[in-house]
Write a structure and sequence with these properties.
Strand content: 15-25%
CATH class of the largest domain: Alpha Beta
Bound molecules: 4'-deoxy-4'-aminopyridoxal-5'-phosphate
Oligomer: single chain
Shape: globular
Structural class: alpha/beta
Strand order of the largest sheet: 4-12-11-10-7-5-6
Helix content: 25-40%
Number of strands: 17
CATH superfamily of the largest domain: Type I PLP-dependent aspartate aminotransferase-like (Major domain)
């Protein structure tokens, strides 16, 4: 095996670098579900840019549209000026995403990261209600800026803030109390004026906690949460940064529960091609921003508007993508379920095309990921103790690719078990 030349990363790039440590090679090209390193070794990508590449790497339909746009000298950086690309995107969001689902939202372009969309959502909820506190959930992940960190669970990530993270109170997520009614506590403290909990501006929730370990909230729990919020005048923010854009089957992950959140954050795959873009959707009466009140230099990534628009038109104008994702997801679920009966000490959970393989002995998850890498499969851990191997294949992965990836995963689990 050729050893990759990595000196400049080790000597010049900050110690903060992360994924390159899990996958110690130097990647050069990528296509569809595959990455190729500079030595020509191919890796099947079941991480998909942490959910930013739902349509695969260098998707040819999106690439064509992007090249044509650039060759035509289309606007690349547009602040938040009105552009043809933005008009096309907004019209497509309206016609492909909102109207067919009976959803009414205004669309905000924050800075192009998930964390910035979360910051905007929290600021807006506070502005609208005049309240300061937010309720979040155990094991939540919402990003690395201070506001987003304040509603994130992970202690190590929180510690990086360097200042107290305040104005957020964690509540137990669905399943956190092993079968007890997790919402009972929240209901009780909200309704008791002596509980010590200030009335919150908003609740922020992921329908499936991606970073938190692929914890799946049941549809009935999400409905009960939405009812609880609306009955008390608390805004409901669904952070769909990782689980939106079709990851769980339907375009919006909350569709399974039939709820209508007040505010929705989107990023990762909304730009389609892996180009940065983020959106905040808010019910029209909640659009109480003043002009420029949440601005930012890179809100107008028009190249991402083009690939985002073409992705929506191409993949979401009918329900094929959703059905296909559910079918492929079911196949993954069945395979993982078989694995859990063949091997001791593992379990599985997931929805659509996000699945977790959960190891009773947490350290085994990282070992499986390392061996999978050696065998040519990219998967990463998640969860509070990194006990979960998380599978996020591109939604466009073929049946063959899914079978191939699951085969490598099974082999990696076997190797870890045999070494035990
Ligand atoms: N919210 C959720 C649910 C996420 O999964 C992430 C990223 N993993 C973020 C927010 C933050 O997104 P970004 O890394 O683009 O800031």
């Amino acid at each position: 095996m050729t050893v990759a030349e990595t000196t400049v990363f080790e000597t010049l790039e900050s110690n903060v670098r992360g994924y390159c440590r899990s996958w110690p090679t130097v990647f050069e090209t990528a296509r569809g579900s595959w990455l190729t390193d500079e030595n020509g070794k191919e890796y099947l990508d079941f991480f998909a840019g942490a959910g930013s590449l739902n349509y695969g790497h260098n998707n040819p339909v999106l690439k064509r549209a992007l090249i044509d746009y650039l060759m035509n000298d289309g606007i690349t950086h547009g602040l938040d000026m009105s552009t043809v690309a933005k008009r096309r995107l907004l019209e497509t969001i309206r016609d492909v995403l909102l109207v067919p689902r009976g959803l009414e939202y205004k669309v905000q372009f924050p800075g192009p990261t998930g964390a910035n969309a979360v910051e905007a959502a929290l600021k807006l909820a506070r502005k609208i209600t005049g309240r300061t506190s937010i309720l979040n959930f155990t094991n939540a992940f919402h990003g690395m800026t201070l506001g987003a960190l304040s509603v994130t669970g992970n202690a190590a990530k929180r510690a990086g803030a360097g200042v107290p993270l305040v104005h957020a109170t964690p509540m137990p997520y669905d399943g956190y109390l092993d079968g007890l009614d997790e919402l009972a506590w929240m209901r009780r403290v909200l309704d008791d004026s002596s509980s010590g909990l200030d009335k919150p501006a908003a609740v922020i929730v992921e329908t499936v906690q991606g970073e938190g370990g692929v914890n799946v909230a049941r549809a009935e729990w999400l409905r009960a949460l939405a009812d609880l919020c609306s009955a008390r005048g608390i805004l409901l923010i669904v952070d769909d940064v990782q689980m939106g854009c079709g990851r769980t089957g339907p375009f919006f992950s909350f569709e399974v529960a039939g709820i209508n959140p007040d505010i929705v954050t989107l990023s990762k795959s909304i730009g389609g091609y892996g180009l940065p873009m983020a959106l905040v959707l808010m019910k029209p009466d909640l659009d109480q921003w003043s002009p420029g009140e949440h601005n930012g230099t890179f809100r107008g990534n028009n190249a991402a508007f083009i690939t985002g628009e073409v992705a929506l038109t191409h993949y979401w104008s009918d329900n094929r993508m959703e059905l296909d994702t559910l079918a492929k997801g079911e196949r993954i679920r069945q395979h993982l379920t078989t694995l859990t009966t063949d091997f001791q000490g593992i379990s599985t959970r997931g929805r659509g095309m996000v699945h977790g393989l959960v190891f009773d002995e947490a350290s085994q998850a990282a070992k499986v990921c390392r061996i999978a890498f050696e065998l040519g499969l990219l998967v990463e851990t998640s969860g509070s103790t990194d006990e979960v191997v998380k599978l996020l294949p591109p939604l466009t992965a073929t049946e063959d690719e899914i079978g191939h990836g699951l085969g490598i995963l099974t082999r990696a689990v076997e190797i870890v078990r045999d070494a035990h």
